[in-house]
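Supplementary notes for students who missed Thursday's class. We covered one full example, reproduced here. Read the sequence, then the structure, then the short commentary at the end.
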Amino acid sequence: MSALAVSSPPAAAELPAGVLQSTEPVLLRGLAAHWPLVQAARRSDAAFCDYLRRFGAQTRLGLWRGGPAIDGRFFYNDDFSGFNYRHEVQTFGALLDELLAGTADAVYLGSTEVDASFPGLRQHNDLPALAACQPHVSLWLGNRMRVAPHFDLPDNIACVVAGRRRFTLFPPDEVANLYIGPLDLTPAGQPVSLVDHAHPDLTRFPRYAQALARAQVFELLPGDALFIPSQWWHGVEALEPVNALVNFWWRQSPAFMDTPLNTLMMALLSLRDLPPAQRDAWRALFDHYVFDADEQTAAHIPPAARGILAPMNDHRARQLRALLLNRLNR
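Structure (token representation):
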């Protein structure tokens, strides 16, 4: 349950070799320690909030709010007809004031694009080594709270800039032991584990013990960062009255590629309930055309006639998407 890779603080414009291609989590102690945002947080919560106010105290932003009864766990309501929190809009400055005052509510500003909502913040609080990746950069801010284990499609470097955060990570192949909830009703777009990773009920969720045996737990302080590879499940706990995170998301695949979650949903529609022999036949086709595909898969077809079997590009992706839409709208 310890880090697979730990580095010393790298230079401001550098990352250790291999981090961005790693298929395992990488703990990066002190990666963002030089940021003014982190330096302010190390002085005090008030200094941290004062620093943030410079970048849009009157900006109105959406946030989640839950009463004391949810104990900081943003989750479903009891009958899974919705969630145990509500959406609100308020000014960024009012949120900072509320956090400093120590509200009894759980409040959570989720992924909020830094460049659009806080212009100028990245100028001195950035990771230049990621410039070529063109990352999407987000701010997360709240008090003591926790988010259920979920996965993200992009790779991610999560930088703690205030408070403490505990990350509990599971490899992608632990999905069967995580008791995943609905795919079409989710807190923030991604399916989540129904297990409270801070207080797991192993009587109700016994297979979760197998996932825990392979879990990796990381506790980060201001300035520390964690590389989370694509599709690693991760639950996050914010452990202080004022907690903030800046993360950098990017994909290693071309922009024209759709999320494979769409493919999964289509498979539920068209494959899952087929008779076993037909499912096996389709499994062979998927292996041939997708999972085991290589340059020989369509080599026997003249290049000009390979159509969607040819290497995918932006133009071919548009054609295929139009074909799918036409078929789905029959």
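Commentary. Helices lie at 36-43, 45-53, 92-101, 114-117, 208-213, 260-270, 276-291, 314-328. The first strand starts at residue 6 and ends at 7. If anything here is unclear, bring it to office hours.
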